[in-house]
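Project standup — Tuesday

K.O.: blocked on the structure for the chain from last sprint. Re-posting the sequence here as requested.
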Amino acid sequence: MTQRERQLLEWIRENPMISQQELAEKAGITRSSAAVHISSLMKKGYIAGRGYLLRTDPYIVVVGGVNMDIGAVSHAPLVARDSNPGRVTTSLGGVGRNIAHNLCLLGEHVSMVTVLGQDSFAQSVRENAAAIGLDLTHSAVIPDGRTGTYLFIDDSDGDMALAVNDMSIYDHMTPDFLRQRLDFINHADLVVVETNLPESSLHWLCQHCTAPLLADPVSTIKAPKLQPVLGRLTALKPNRMEAELLSGVSIHNEADAARAAEKLLDTGLQQVYISLGSDGLYAADRQGHTARVVCPRVQIANATGGGDAAAAALASCIAHGKTLEEAAHLAIGAGALACTSPETIHPGMSWENIQYILDKEEL
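H.V.: unblocked you, prediction finished:
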């Protein structure tokens, strides 16, 4: 924030009904200059909207990807180089977007920092965001850009035959792109980041973010991007394979998970939550606290969204100062709840339903 912006913001705090002309006269500048400063304060998140409403409610920022997933399943065994009858579906995806969606369902105020193309997929993203209350005002539309897209084709037996992803739009999430939004990001109660960002941008954000920072490694291919900046993170949520890769420890049992967690915490990382799939979750922090939570027994309809739901629950818990053990239990409950829905995002995601699953299992 510039000195001029700080001065104007103080006058607005003193008198929220003050006009731009009055601000200009007090500052000795033109009305148009005052308007530019007000616009800058809105973009940086100090003013929530029209009427000089100062932002006072807590919020979480998710920095990551938004994709359109296009899936096709053949009715019969695939025939190469031919048109195969089948079923084609489209759905919104992206690790960052899925985490943000779950956070909205859990009652959080969420802003997403991402990039969209100039296409019909972006319009679908905006319509969905408006419906769930996800703020996209700090995201950007790339002229002539293509919204991130993931296309997969499954054979009739459900095995993937082919997949193509078009994620080139995320190259626009440069350090300069993030720098323009840094004030807003740093005023968040928590920032969630995932590794679909370019490596240089991910490192820049971790070096400059002053808000608590939770990272999701996304995959073993993208997880190494986090290695140099683990010590800058508040929390990390890897799965078993990602934790093995980042720690150098093979995980076969709880003792191995504890050693992997210790290695990760030695980097300066403050908290780690290792998802062990059906074996539950192991968590530890630099203060010596640990938590081992078994996975609730649920009827699995689709395991795809479990990790993103768990990450969202962790984000909310960390933002609200929950203990390591509380966060671990609620994260495993959220992941289990998500797996009971055929949809990637469980429409009934809520703290009440999470607690119901935990109570049922006496966890």
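K.O.: great, moving the ticket to review. The chain has two domains: 3-54, 60-64+95-147+169-360. The chain has 13 helices and 17 strands.
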